[in-house]
Amino acid sequence: MVLSFCDKVILAPMVRVGTLPMRLLALDYGADIVYCEELVDIKMLQCKRIVNDVLQTVDYIAPTERVIFQTCEREKDRVVFQMGTADPERALAVAKLIENDVAAIDINMGCPKEYSTKGGMGAALLSSPEKIEKVEETVNLVKIIERTGVAAIAVHGRKKAERQQHPVHCDFIKAVSEAVSVPVIANGGSQELIREFQDIEAFRSVTAASSVMVARAAMWNPSIFRREGSLPQEDVMRNYIRYAVMYNNHYTNTKYCLCQMIRDQLESPLGRKLHATQSTLDICEVFEMTSFYESCQLSQERKKVSLNVSIQETQITDNDNEENHDTVQMPVKFERKDYLPQVTPKMFLLEWCRKEKFPQPVYYTVQRSLDKFFRSVVTVNEKKYCSTLWDKSKKLAEQAAAIVCLRTLGLPEGKVGEEESDLIRKRKRGIQDESVDMTDSQGVEQIKKRLHSNENFDDSNI
């Protein structure tokens, strides 16, 4: 454990609670230090560190594209990274990976849950169950830990076999506090001792600890850190939802945290509505925050567009040294609703190339590692065209490139309201000629075969 904060109130949300929105909310209400949830070393070592310019966060993203750990500048000097590990080399590698984004690193040596102990983590690091059966042996163990050079030690005042419903052993924590010189953080008082802010100091005093770590009591109501007193439950929930929306927190985690706050009222009308939600938007509707959700989504989309325009991506061809000043560029996106249903810009461009006896258009597409978006360059008559904006799919990026080419050449692109072109008339005749009874399976198969045999076929038109 590397922790150098003394005489501080510490929040340590456990299980799935220590995500960024909850940590920021706790800081709002007066917590000095916040913990992330326990994250396993192997999972962290698979992550890639990404600076998210849209959300203004640092995201550690797994190969599955899931955000495993997220932090921001506001909590950089106040967030403790809690690590589950059974291997010193892996633990060191994770520490080096995240050291510039967190204030401290905590090695979890106390979790008795099976998922930790099976992997040799948590309480398994204590080497044997007997170690915590007697206070004397616990004190000896802590002295050994102190000699490793740790800056602080957090003590959860229960035995390995005990759970939340068992009384916390304040005398055990006090014995450890008096036996070592490093700061001791007292933990485990949520269930029976900590109900309001003043109880935090009382728990610290009775355990003779340097500071207090609060988990479940803070999860139930983060405003417990307010010296002036806790806020009404629904006010706290709405404040939490704001952060959850602002930082794109996964709705399942948001829902879980809200259910923990409302825990004894899950059968109330509000609780039932919350239980039925299936998305962040649903949650916002329950709390009459739809307009806030929509404004955040709009703001984020605008940031994405702005970043797409400003990010300098000089590499868009196979040749690393090729300059793109010969590529015609403009900020264009293909919006399906703006175009006629029978045709697409790619089809217009292909038809024009055939008419002019040019080779058919050639599309080259790259994917950006930052957000997995795409941008495409189309080559027509030895000239290149592309949009400066990035799209969420390869097909959309190709359509955008085709639009740039068509607009540069002054050609129709199939937008709603354009004068009807030969291609549109041809497509309409083709649809009329190929009309079949759609209840006839043979007729449907004929249409499929014709579509897929057409080199001009683009399944984005279906």
SSE blueprint:
Layout: E1 9-11, H1 20-29, E2 33-35, E3 39-40, H2 41-45, E4 48-52, E5 57-61, E6 67-71, E7 79-84, H3 88-98, E8 104-107, H4 114-117, H5 135-147, E9 153-156, H6 170-179, E10 184-187, H7 197-207, E11 211-214, H8 216-220, H9 233-246, H10 251-261, H11 269-275, H12 280-286, H13 290-310, E12 327-330, H14 345-355, E13 362-367, E14 374-380, E15 383-387, H15 394-409, H16 422-433, H17 441-453
Parallel strand pairs: 1-2, 1-11, 2-7, 3-7, 7-8, 9-10, 10-11, 12-15
Antiparallel strand pairs: 4-5, 5-6, 13-14, 14-15
Helix pairs in contact: 1-9, 5-6, 9-10, 14-15
Question: What does this protein look like?
Answer:
- There is one protein chain.
- By secondary structure, this protein is of the alpha/beta class.
- Mean pLDDT is 80; it is low at 1-17, 120-124, 128-134, 311-323, 433-439 and 453-462.
- The chain has helices spanning 20-29, 41-45, 88-98, 114-117, 135-147, 170-179, 197-207, 216-220, 233-246, 251-261, 269-275, 280-286, 290-310, 345-355, 394-409, 422-433, 441-453, and strands spanning 9-11, 33-35, 39-40, 48-52, 57-61, 67-71, 79-84, 104-107, 153-156, 184-187, 211-214, 327-330, 362-367, 374-380, 383-387.
- The longest helix has 21 residues, at 290-310.
- The chain contains 17 helices and 15 strands.
- It is 39% helix and 15% strand.
- The chain folds into 3 domains: 9-225, TIM Barrel (Alpha-Beta Barrel); 232-310, no CATH class; 327-430, Double Stranded RNA Binding Domain (2-Layer Sandwich).
- It starts with 8 loop residues before the first strand and ends in a 9-residue tail after the last helix.
- A hairpin with a 2-residue loop joins strand 14 and strand 15.
